Amino acid sequence: HSTRSIFDISRSGRRSTRFPEHPANPEMSSVEEAIPAEFLAEEMAPLPELAESDIVRHYVNLSTLNMSVDTHFYPLGSCTMKFNPKRHERLAGTPGLIDMHPYQTAETSQGMLKILFELQEMLAEIAGLPAVSLHPAAGAQGEFTALLTAAAYFRDKGENRTRVIFPSSAHGTNPASAALAGFECVQLKKSATGLVDIEELQAHLDDQTAVFMITNPNTIGMFEPEIGRISQMLHDVGGLVYIDGANMNAILGKTRPGDFGGDMMHYNVHKTFTGPHGAGGPGAGPIAVRDFLADYLPAPIVTKQRDESGNEVYGLSRPAKSIGQVRSFFGNVGILLRGYFYLKTLGAVGLREVSEQAVLNANYLLSQVKDFLPVPGGDVCMHEFVASASPVLKDRGISAMDIAKRLLDYGVHAPTVYFPLDVPEAMMMEPTETESKSTLDRYAALLRTIATEEDPEMVHSAPHTTPVCRPDEVKAARQPILKATLPATGVDEPTEEPLVTRSV
Amino acid sequence: HSTRSIFDISRSGRRSTRFPEHPANPEMSSVEEAIPAEFLAEEMAPLPELAESDIVRHYVNLSTLNMSVDTHFYPLGSCTMKFNPKRHERLAGTPGLIDMHPYQTAETSQGMLKILFELQEMLAEIAGLPAVSLHPAAGAQGEFTALLTAAAYFRDKGENRTRVIFPSSAHGTNPASAALAGFECVQLKKSATGLVDIEELQAHLDDQTAVFMITNPNTIGMFEPEIGRISQMLHDVGGLVYIDGANMNAILGKTRPGDFGGDMMHYNVHKTFTGPHGAGGPGAGPIAVRDFLADYLPAPIVTKQRDESGNEVYGLSRPAKSIGQVRSFFGNVGILLRGYFYLKTLGAVGLREVSEQAVLNANYLLSQVKDFLPVPGGDVCMHEFVASASPVLKDRGISAMDIAKRLLDYGVHAPTVYFPLDVPEAMMMEPTETESKSTLDRYAALLRTIATEEDPEMVHSAPHTTPVCRPDEVKAARQPILKATLPATGVDEPTEEPLVTRSV
Amino acid sequence: MLDAIGVSSIDELFNTIPENFRLGRDLNLGDHVSEMELTAQIQQLARQNASSSSHVCLMGGGAYDHFIPAVVDEIASRGEYYTAYTPYQAEASQGSLQTFFEFQSLICALTGMDVANASLYEGGTSVSEAAFMAMRVTRRHKKVVVLESVHPEYRQTLQTYLQNLETELVVVPTPSGTVDLKQVAAVMDKETACLIVQQPNFFGSLEQAAELTRMAKEAGALSIVSVDPLSLGVLKRPGTYGADIVVAEGQGLGIPLQFGGPFLGILACDEKYVRRMPGRLIGKTTDSKGEDCYVLNLQAREQHIRRDKATSNICTNQGLMAIRATVYLSSMGPKGMQEAGKRSCQGAHYLVNQLKANGWKAPFAAPYFKECVLTPPASVSEVVTQAQEGGFLVGPVLDRFTDAFCEETQEQLQNSLLLAVTEKRTLEELDQLVGVLAS
Amino acid sequence: MLDAIGVSSIDELFNTIPENFRLGRDLNLGDHVSEMELTAQIQQLARQNASSSSHVCLMGGGAYDHFIPAVVDEIASRGEYYTAYTPYQAEASQGSLQTFFEFQSLICALTGMDVANASLYEGGTSVSEAAFMAMRVTRRHKKVVVLESVHPEYRQTLQTYLQNLETELVVVPTPSGTVDLKQVAAVMDKETACLIVQQPNFFGSLEQAAELTRMAKEAGALSIVSVDPLSLGVLKRPGTYGADIVVAEGQGLGIPLQFGGPFLGILACDEKYVRRMPGRLIGKTTDSKGEDCYVLNLQAREQHIRRDKATSNICTNQGLMAIRATVYLSSMGPKGMQEAGKRSCQGAHYLVNQLKANGWKAPFAAPYFKECVLTPPASVSEVVTQAQEGGFLVGPVLDRFTDAFCEETQEQLQNSLLLAVTEKRTLEELDQLVGVLAS
């Protein structure tokens, strides 16, 4: 493949999108008449010049260098890389949804507001927590928003709680969000199963404790057996329990964060409810909280009322003691819509089956690999598990990273490796419910093949079939090259090519 | 890559599309009540059972085994593989166009009929022939339809003309269409330039001559210099001249079939006007004819009238002596729409520039390869040319087919080879106007590299990087395997999987 | 570039066109418009049409408002498929080739036939190609028999295809909506190449297709059965009752209505006729390394090789529509086809019964599947307008086809229309239509 | 599968959930609906909304109805992009990585800055992230200065982000629509981390951005300029007047309005601050074979490595929106950006002049680009309804934001709204709107 950028293939005079000038009109002023020269650019931006055909060939070919759920098995632990139903992608583009301005009046937005209201209700029901805000842009912002909500609650109660606690296996966003929100971070010690050491936790709890953040099921793929006691401990000191919802795919309709003691949680709509991952985003990070926190939620919340004739009327409102907005506009509506479509599509039974099938698939996979990739969490997991490549490293010098890279050669995306740090040579695998048994069988067989591959050098030096192999990250960081620019040399084509080199 | 078919990956119980049963209603009969048992199937069709995720991964991966205009340079002579503007693809899907039933009343179809009427007018103008039928499904059907139109005209005049003549370089569809229409076929002798031997033609002309079919510019890429005289000769004996419009991309707005003596022609909308090729189709094959043939055109034709208030009203009509329909419904409207969008997008000047740039690109390419791949047609061509690999075959044992296959290794689609038969080791190249000079330069350099490749065996045994290499066609024909079926062996999955394995 | 060519202007390259033929002016096509302007213009024109987006569509007559799963659009809109050429170059086309191979396989599974080609233009030309194929197979070129209940535009197409030949086209009238077997027996003879039947027929009614197939065989002719693919989740597959050639309009298999095309011509047949088939065929074989692969097969039948001796003149076919049908059938599976068929059939019978209760008449008594000829108590053209204003598209009105039917049949079709119900229609919609038409 | 695991039922796998926490009932979510039913339901709900499909949209306030070339949708709807994960695994992600690298490059070209990250959530959080970054760079954590003419929701976001910290947020009032430089000078001091300016500002007006940038520098603070990317084909690029950090709402760059998100947060800055930047960065490097390739760079700034010491908590970003912007800018090129900017600017001035001739007032005198605050002669809410009934969406009405402005500014905004004109608007539409509002 070629790594030439669009700046390299730019040719002066090529065009794709053009706009006509406004027709001559005596009352039309030129830009120079409308705006003083001091504000006007002296030259055009040095953007590349391309025909639509150049653009299409460039990006279509680039896209095929990716592995993706649509093309490959992608057992990336903690990321829930499940299939994204195609209807949902298309429905999100329905005229009348995709082209609504965020400041339209409620009167002209009833269909959209009804959808968002129903989504709030559904997310509350799934969480077992009554108040929902759809506002946060992603899971990390959901965490941050919930922590600010908690802070506002404590402040309102006149309490000065400065500390947020989390297990060592917590996602990096937990401490990062807590720090951003102005809290002091306390991390518990490592644990190979990711389960909380009750005594250690107890030692940290006092009237400075604001929030205990816990992912449950945890990052090792285990449901925290002491979650009830942990919640009670937090509540006993006046603190709150935050449930990181990254692993909700394991427990939908089986148990609810609100029922096992959580006071606040966020959803990752792009993990659990098939907003696609989009090569990194966008997500949506709705939060659900207990009733006593509802007044502090960010604005806006969707409300339903009835008018005189008894018709349902939807509107937006600001909670009484709202922390305010954490972003502009309502939220990542395009992603929320996909979540809504997904929940409607599955209904109560289908949603429970999601978790049942996800857990079944994970346990089946675990059963097929545990003899050569031991799983510290034990023989039963939730929707994912963390295996360790330590024995393979010891016996054959093949590391988790080596296995991950070698998998790419066989057309399977790597699992998450070296996270959480609690497990040495961690390989975190989450097959999700949308993969078939035959895919899992093939994957398990591949892992075995790689772990026992005759020539370990083939594994060390993998991947061999991908467009590139083990980029030099140190070099990248030492002298960062972070952009391309137009070549300085001239070009040999006419300065304005004919219409045909553009698409339209 | 895997050649497992969807029948191989089928698993009993997996589902993608489901339909609900109608709600219980006392007036609803079961199918068994509605239809006697003798008509009802006794078992379900043995179709594969798949989840949407299975389908997507299967076909997305399959698609990437193709070379296509969106991904590769595709200099396939005679096929005009030009870029398809993306807006046109999307506009063809506009609600109110894509979902119109063909039997809607004219009253409910005015927007569509206006588009089709304007397209008729534009195609007449480009052809220089006043009467247009948009009805034929593809170029070959256009030929067939025009020949039937001519036959009806002759029959109506009481003439018994049974013979259709064409040059040896004619597309195979010309004789095939003539034969299907009941004509006797006469093929002229081979000619390395594809130009017509006037004397030979003259010898065939008499009162049995119905039509002379000619592609102009011809398949060698040359404009027939004697086209005026040829037309005159045909008209002198009462015959008609048919212009195969496959090569219209060379002459848009530069000259018109009607002006140089053609009486009938067809367009290939998917070649000239960017209906995409669709891996083989669909196309659309509108025909344009002289006024005296208009009454015989197939039904329906779009008409424009004015009502009492002076408003334009569009309708469908049947020409007075119409040959009737050659297919059901109006025509390949979806493809015609793309042609309309293209013509609107370019306008008169843009359309002329298409041919100018196409001819410029072809001549530039010719200039870069003629020293090692001689071009019998000479140093100037129209939108395409036919080079000969004979010297390379003679000197190095590398055939046109070898070069074609080796090009695939470099990520370029092969040119058309061994057509027309008039040129030995023919390589017919058509770069089209949408390719840039740098693409042409790279292609010419590749041809040179291959023709002089150090190890000719690498060329003989090419391609090496494609999913397959030189399939055994003889074996395929001897014992044809033309379908897959469901495996007879059982499967180990439940008979009805949970909702989550389906998309929706 | 001009320097490399050795000319001083692009115009010079056009010097081979005799001067008197050069167009000395701009074409009268108007000025170019930008993508933005074109979009606005087309959206405005589209709003001047009714469609199944703006109305609830119950129109029939060979094109139906069936449901299209989103996955069909997702796959068919991939540039790798839709901007590829005909897969002549097998190494660069395994994606298309395997997909078409799967299309052939799915059509065989759906129809119960041995072998299917990789598409023809649409239903009408498929009937014609099948008739020509039957003439080649039977070497009988004098007579083709077709039931009047076959779609009038398919019959018209066949008639046009035959109009410059000697073949006689015999139409067996069907004034009672389905054919009288005795009348068929009366015209079948040793010169008859084939008997063409549609099941369900144009009126939506069910013919004695199995019996008709048997009668064709007895006369040494081939039976050609034109089916609605969307009926085959419920009705007998023609392979199970011995049809020789099955043809179909494949529009219902995931292809939008788009005012009549592009649709999808389907042709499947008994294995023994494979070398007489028209159209492209994909076969499985092995490559130079012995690996399985797919390739265009039996090309010697085709126009680019056999020219005037080819089995058809077809070149460009309906590849992308075949890809759509492939994804569609993969997504439907056996149960989806059955569910869709049942829903359509039940909805149609429900609607017809409701309308009958309101004074509508059904001129034909035979069992029907999803479509039916109906005569309203009021003027049929007023009914169409009334429906339209109420948000429904109905029809076609059958006087559109009067030339296509014998007098006796025409009488039955007076003041009547076709109504078709697909799986998309809900009971609420059907009740609403009944209400609109009752008011 | 259960046998292999060694359990007898799926439920057994959930035994690790304490029994008292297991949900002993179905969730109250209702029954599942089929793809076909869902489609019908959603289309029906969508019809209950107005939108830029049903109406001509002249709404402003930070989200605009700009034209989106089809090629943007074509590329962004490829599964290889939208179903891929964050490109941590470089070998499996060169497509995304190179595309994001090009995104960074295009944003630098457009803004005139040295380095851009691979996206943040949207405009408001970009302002906040920039302020936090400025505090890190300047090590001044006590004070942030923002002009009142910055989008009120961006300011609100910033305020929320700071609400649990000690940092003081100083808002410089802008009652005349643009800021008085003297008032800025009065608040800038040695404790000020940054000065935040929006250009064009929330009211559409042009601030003395170059001068403000200079004033920030003088105080040892960073200048943060929030721009409308669609203005940069016409207006000065902030890199040319020395801005330290440029942020932007990237929605105009090929991203649909979708009721407010997902949009695209842009952040670009001077090279020397690169290691203090929030968000993902893609760098070019070489692989083990020495070939050029792309990789996530400087990850040590990020939460998954640095945890509570990270430069931001952002993880999921707006990757797919960045891909859209990349294709958009490739398609626009320098001339497209200029043409779009000119058309918007000219259209806006035309409309404002026509409305002024009809008695409308513009409370602010400063030059504006494509958007303007206007006060109609009638009640503004009636005007909105009138426009809506005439087929136009206008606004927002500015009383929506009253809490966000000081009293003096509020007075100027009484009974007024924002109107924005993009390149999509034709003179005919503008004339028609003037007509609708005059009647």
TrEMBL record, chains C, D:
Coiled coil: none
CDD domains the UniProt entry points to: GDC-P
TM region positions: none
Gene3D superfamilies reported for this sequence: Aspartate Aminotransferase, domain 1, Type I PLP-dependent aspartate aminotransferase-like (Major domain)
A molecular-function term among this protein's GO annotations: glycine dehydrogenase (decarboxylating) activity
Record Pfam families: GDC-P
GO term, biological process aspect, one: glycine catabolic process
Residue ranges of domain Glycine cleavage system P-protein N-terminal in the record: 1-436
Reaction catalysed by this enzyme: N(6)-[(R)-lipoyl]-L-lysyl-[glycine-cleavage complex H protein] + glycine + H(+) = N(6)-[(R)-S(8)-aminomethyldihydrolipoyl]-L-lysyl-[glycine-cleavage complex H protein] + CO2
Protein origin, superkingdom: Bacteria
Keywords noted in UniProt: Oxidoreductase
EC code: 1.4.4.2
Group of enzyme by EC: oxidoreductase
Purpose: The glycine cleavage system catalyzes the degradation of glycine. The P protein binds the alpha-amino group of glycine through its pyridoxal phosphate cofactor; CO(2) is released and the remaining methylamine moiety is then transferred to the lipoamide cofactor of the H protein.
Protein name: glycine dehydrogenase (aminomethyl-transferring)
Native source organism of the sequence: Polystyrenella longa
Taxonomic lineage from the root: Bacteria, Pseudomonadati, Planctomycetota, Planctomycetia, Planctomycetales
Gene name of the record: gcvPA
